[in-house]
Amino acid sequence: MKSAGGWVRGLRDVALLAVQLLAGEFLAGVLVGGISLAAAQAPPPPDAKFQPPLICGIDSGCRIQHYVDQDPGPGARDYACGHLSYDGHNGVDFAIANLAVMQRGVDVVAAAAGVVTHIHDGEADISMDETGPGDSIDGINGNSVTLTHKGGWRSLYAHLRRGSLRVRTGQEVAAGASLGQVGLSGNSNFPHLHFTLHYRDWIIDPFTGAPQASGCAVANDKQDGGGAAAQNLWGPDATGLLAYRPGGLIDAGFTAASAPSQDLLQGLARETALPADSPNFTFWAAAWGLRRGDSETLRVYGPDGNLVGETFDRLEQEGALWVRQASLQASPPWPRGTYRATYKVERGGSDKTLVILDIERNIEVR
Ligand SMILES: [Zn+2]
Hints:
4 helices; binds zinc ion; single chain; mainly beta
């Protein structure tokens, strides 16, 4: 607890709302059962490299939340041997910041030229936490488009926004053609595009060209002569969307009172200024990809630059998505002016510390 300008305000608590939103997302694209394609049988390269399957504005908060599970066993590893996957995940999840961004519309585009061989529309954009899992392929994928490309390749675009599909079955599309928009349909509990790449009956990881469950070391084995060389199937990525990031910020801001984490995550509780007579002052931050042992520090500074409150915590469990709130409570009025808040997450031990994120937000109190 610190004092600033004669008033004492403590960070009342850091309401830890570990939102384990993601465990329920399962995709059944083309089922391949127990078939596994050894690395030596890696598919031939496609005619053309694939392009990122969505168009992200600078404020869309796009990130890759999950990769293809490359762990052959019951665990989950992404192609970089990181933890951005879950057991059996068969595609790449491109997440966007929140529902407000979804409603503005984020375009999903063809990763390569092809023919539309399946579409499904009409599924509501409702979290599966409310509706339960689907009981058919279309119910699971939600609104979706499947493209068939030359040479035995197919791509699936799932969880699209209801009514957003812009193609019909049999239509030829060019690479980059708009297919629809990112949504929340099917087995999805956060707005995202699930993208699966197939070669014949196999699920292929576009980051390595290797089949699902090949082992994450494939990506690191390019030079050892063992089997076919792993190769990234993506073409140029001007936006950096495809760069590997182990975690980061989803969103952060201020509210006049603490709010349900879902509201914060969905961008529903956000102030651009706070009244001086506000009974509460809450700074919140939502992050993804955090791991057990990560340390988090939230700080709030008053208009005079002095630290008003500070809190530190170390995560005790894994969390795909996290929402943190630091609430200041005291008798108004608050000193007017610009308040600054910071949120920092660090990973690692004494010898090497990795800064996962370090952000700052300002707000006016009037
Ligand atoms: Zn997925």
